[in-house]
Amino acid sequence: MLWLTWRQHRAQTLVTVVLIAGAALLLVLDAVPFVLVKTLPVVPVFVGLFWGVPLLAREYERGTDRLVWTQSVPRSRWLVVKFTVLGTAVVLAGLAFGAVVLGWTASADAPVDRFSDEVFGVSGVVAGAWFLAVFTLGAASGAVLRRMLPAMAVTTAVFAGLVVGAYLARGHYAEPEVALSGAHGMAVPADALVTGTGVVGPAGDLLSWDDAMSACAGAEPVGCMRDRGYEQQYTLYQPADRYWRFQWTETGLLLVIALVLAGVTARQVVNRSR
Amino acid sequence: MVWLTWRQHRAQVLVTAGFLVLVGVLLLVHGLGADGLTGDALTARFQSIYTYVSWLPAVPLVAGLFWGAPLLARELERGTHRLAWTQSVTRRRWLATKLGLLGLAVTVAGLLLGVMVSAWLTAFDGVRSADRFSDPVMFGATGVAGGVWWLFAFAIGTAAGGLTRRTLPAFAVTIAVFLTAMFAMFAVFQVRDLYAEPERMLAEGPPADAFVTDSAFVSPAGVEVSGDVPECATAGRDTYLDCVDEAGYRSVLYYQPADRYWRFQWTEAGLLAVVSVLLAGPVAYRVARRPV
Amino acid sequence: MTAGTTALAATGLGKKYRRTWALKDCSLSVPEGRVVALVGPNGAGKTTLLHLVVGLLAPDQGDVTVLGSSAGTTRTLSRVAFLAQDKPLYDGFSVADMLRFGARTNPGWDQDMAVRRLASLDIPLDRRVGKLSGGQQAQVALTVALAKRPELLVLDEPLANLDPLARHEVMRGLMAAVAESGMTVVLSSHVVSDLVDTCDWLVVLNGGRVQVSGDIEDLLAGHRLLTGPAELADGVAGRLAVVDDDRTDRQATLLVRTGEGRPPLDPRWTDRGVNLEELVLAYLRRPDSAALPKPALARA
């Protein structure tokens, strides 16, 4: 089974190793093209498309499920071996990539910090969790849909949803700190993750811009806001030293998702009703 | 043939239409909500969605994957090309209809997205970062260039499918070629700077919406210095600009005026359209000629 | 060949896809060491039945016992080999890789036999499976199934998509292996003539139900084709079990189940034995007729 797993997935393995080595080489040569930083958040989807989806969809599509599941290895063991080996490979790839990206952001002239939305999910330990979760997502959609192309489409769409969800959720992993505008502008520490801005009400309450504006609906906004006592502005942020705490929080969440999706896959594989 | 094209690709058409409707509604709601906002509030509202809008340049890649790559690869992989090409429709006509209709559909979808993003962007007129010209993301997502980026990705996908004859490798090749093309265009060659000779100006700041491409210092003698000003080589970081000022240097900006936006759009559109034809043409020819 | 034990037994077997039953109330019993022909028109449920036997599907109703234990368990998996309809193989693997695949997933794998068999067929081990001809792919798939050294070999339309020469080669290879090992074989086909010389047990499946199941020699001996005047047909039909009757104004042709021996008949009838093809066609034309084994026959 180990040999079979290697033989069937060696192309993905080699390409992944080469790509990660390439990323590491860019780091070593100090030649990181920062336009690529924008594309960093989409990297995990490729794990889903090329590692996850073919795992089952390709077998079903080519009919080789009927070959492999009528050998002496029960399909439950087949799945356990494949999941364990490929899952481990994917997590290792994710951790390696996460380490390389952390290296990128640590270089002196990096235009992004590791806490920013673009980088956070593909740096540190959470990169491994993202790789694993998207791998199981691809596997589960392949197991349910049994065809590559629809499974790839679903994986892409659900992945985009997960990323949006993560962006929205990240601000809430811990109670944010508040910085208020003063004579010298806003005292938001460098490298912090900004999660919201707005104005401070007369009673010290925090209003988002939308709320403040809707309170002034119809009136001339600047004057209205001053009249209502919305003098000060605020920024919600997560300090940079919370990076690792957030990493572990998101890792935990993603592992739960991965577990659920692995369960869906296992159910589909073991279920012999169609 | 038109029916066949529709029947085989309706899933893509419907999903793309659904995606456009979804994005359209989101942009509409977000844009209408900006009505009446000014200053920091308007900027904050723009920033709240900018991260997601900045993904739009990746959307053509998805179109290339799901519209282009399966077009030939799936037929060749399943062997259905033997069925399709032995009907009374010539192989050339089959290919021409498919490439023509699907290429058109993909381009129209991209153009629609461009129109929607352009319309949404007009709601953020006062926001400095919300500029359709100087921001590379916005430039690619608005106007006609967006539509041609879709066509370009579609051509890459089709060519990859015709060459690899299998869906999964075609996917991998499409992704690699598309990202390499983007990387080459914007990181290595910075092609958008080459669409026209920039204007030069001695100034405090560029005119509104202009696309600043470069800056330098000019000595009192009128000589342009790229890099550090020699007189201030020893000055510290904080005092450097004061030193440059004292030495009588002035800054000079190179920029593309805002009214060149459409010229640039058509240049990029033309460039990508030509590359698309060069990519898909030989593959189509090869597929049409090659024995089954 | 150990007669007296059952290789395959199904009781009340049923399988449903959404709302339609692909297979219903299917009961049959096949003794060990037989070569079973599973015959039926397209869509009769042959593939469903075979998938149930090898454990790819689980039944919605009833159960199926293979070699004494229930289908699909780890124990039966290693004793049953299956060749699916389109002979799936991993296209990207070399032939040697396919053998290695078999060796790594089956404890009883016979590598010598596999290598010898492929060498005798002139199939190069280093060739990619996807580059082989259809007949060669079928041979590789069959080799992978045989080298597992199964006690029961299940083949779904093994001869479909093969040219006559390849059909002959595949069948000959199969029969040689059966003669050597004494395994039980179940093979499905919708072309009866493919099976005439090789099989000794017949199962006819039609519309998701088992119509016929029995030893081919017994079945042929127990059926006769009568030809005689049309006006006497009703009388015969009252006395004998008519499987199929085909009447014109004056003449009737009846295929009847007679059991042992020849029935006494009006001399105006002529009668003769039937061949396998006539027998199968008669049953397929009349889905209401059935020749199911008496319990005694099933144990025979």
UniProtKB/TrEMBL annotation, chain A:
It comes from the Bacteria. The keyword Endoplasmic reticulum does not apply. Keywords: Membrane, Transmembrane, Transmembrane helix. The keyword Transmembrane helix applies. The chain crosses the membrane at residues 12-29, 35-57, 78-107, 119-137, 149-169, 252-270. This is ABC-2 family transporter.
Automatic annotation (TrEMBL), chain B:
Keywords: Membrane, Transmembrane, Transmembrane helix. The keyword ATP-binding does not apply. The keyword Nucleus does not apply. The chain crosses the membrane at residues 12-32, 52-73, 94-117, 137-156, 168-191, 269-288. This is ABC-2 family transporter.
UniProtKB/TrEMBL annotation, chain C:
It holds the Pfam family ABC_tran. One of its GO terms (molecular function) is ATP binding. SMART domains: AAA (SM00382). InterPro entries: AAA+_ATPase, ABC_transporter-like_ATP-bd, ABC_Transporter_VariousFunc, P-loop_NTPase. Keywords: ATP-binding, Nucleotide-binding, Transport. Residues 8-232 form the ABC transporter domain. This is ABC-2 type transport system ATP-binding protein. It comes from Actinophytocola algeriensis.
